[in-house]
Amino acid sequence: MPELPEVETIRRCIAPEIVGQTVTNVIVRNASLRWPVPTDLARCLPTQKIISVERRAKYLLLRTDAGSAIIHLGMSGKLLVCRQNKAVEKHDHLDLVFANGKILRFNDPRRFGCALWTSDDPTQHPLLATLGKEPLEDGLTAEYLFHQSRGRSLKIKEFLMNSRIIVGIGNIYANESLFAAGIHPGRAAGRISLKRYERLKAAIKEVLTNALRQGGTTLRDFCDAAGNPGHFQLQLMVYNRAGESCRSCGSLIQQIRIGQRSTYFCKKCQR
DNA sequence: ACTGGCTCCTGAGGGC
DNA sequence: TGCCCTCAGGAGCCAG
User: Fold this and answer.
1) Does the reported pTM lie above 0.90?
2) Do residues A42 and A94 both lie within one domain?
3) At A224, is the pLDDT very low, low, confident or very high (cuts 50, 70, 90)?
4) Are residues A155 and A194 in the same domain?
5) Given pLDDT bands bounded at 50, 70 and 90, which one contains residue A222?
6) Non-local CB neighbours of A118 within 8 Å, separated by 6+ positions
7) Which residue's alpha carbon is at the shortest distance from the C1' of B1?
8) Same-domain check for residues A94 and A157
9) Is A132 contained in some domain?
């Protein structure tokens, strides 16, 4: 399940392969993703050169002079850079074909992902315009989280997973960040002190940075655009560890549900 | 203005 | 071996 470290890993992997390359063809095998793949994508992208591959939240932005492709991997999406003659597999929904004979192939079994086209500034697209702070940028401060959370009763874990507040944090890294900060995931966001948000902010940056350094987390099938898995799963402190002992204090890791999501924590280390 | 619940989808895994 | 059930989750959307 690609979160910020996984999407950024993919971005870093595909950027050197496709920046400066000209798109010669777009093959849409299945347009029925989360939103229909717009016909403009296949109409406008060919003949365009990729200027840059950027990331905003969990969206990848492929910029050209004519506009930008916006790609989200959803739950199960993968991007692979490969030769054009690679056999088409199940759920290979989309290919961007480049002049050098390579292709960028989008595969997504659950089809929660999307591939869109905009001729305008992609950061102003409706899906991106209202996004919150990037966690690895300086704009994310304890004061920001503190002020955004005042008067709000929702649980801190849901607050962290709200992309209008802060982006890129999905279930794995919300659990891990809260453990690293020593905060119980069910605590009301509005009742956490500035001092504890200071610790949480540092924990988020540290967890995401470490995960990025490890090439992301591979639980089942995440891999980068070259097919390599990540390694951060070896360092998970709580996620997917229900009933196992806390790596810090030895207590058993608890599993509860918050917002229809599996939530893992150590009741001794997190208050 | 918030908040919680529903929804899309496929594949893995468990029980029988 | 096969079938059925449950679970996994990003994030938009909507009702209260």
Assistant:
1) yes
2) yes
3) confident
4) yes
5) confident
6) A67, A68, A70, A125
7) A152
8) no
9) no
Protein residues with beta carbon less than 7 Å from any atom of strand B? A 34, 75, 90-91, 109-112, 151-155, 158, 190, 220, 259-260
Residue-wise pLDDT for A142-186, tens only, equals: 999 999 999 999 999 999 999 999 999 999 999 999 999 999 999
pLDDT at A194 (0 to 100): 95
Token pair, residue A248, equals 């810090």
Domain of residue A34 covers: 4-124
Domain count, chain A: 2
Per the rule left: phi > 0, alpha: psi between -120 and 50, beta: everything else, A266 is beta
User: What is the C-alpha to C-alpha distance for residues A152 and A188, in angstroms, rounded to an integer?
Assistant: 7
Which residue gives the smallest C-alpha to C1' distance to B6? A260
Domain shared by A81 and A116, yes or no: yes
Name residue A184's amino acid.
H
CATH of the domain at A23: 3.20.190.10
Please name the residues in contact with A49: beta carbons below 8 A apart, sequence gap of 6 or more. Answer: A20, A21, A22, A23, A64, A65
Which residue lies nearest C7, CA-to-C1' measured?
A262
Is A211 a domain residue? yes
Q: Which nucleotide is nearest to A35 (CA to C1')?
A: B8
pLDDT in tens, A117-142: 999 999 999 999 999 999 999 999 99
**Whether residues A99 and A175 fall in one domain:** no
CA of A238 to C1' of C1 (A): 37
Residues of A from 232 to 271 whose C-beta is within 7 A of strand C: which are they? 260-262
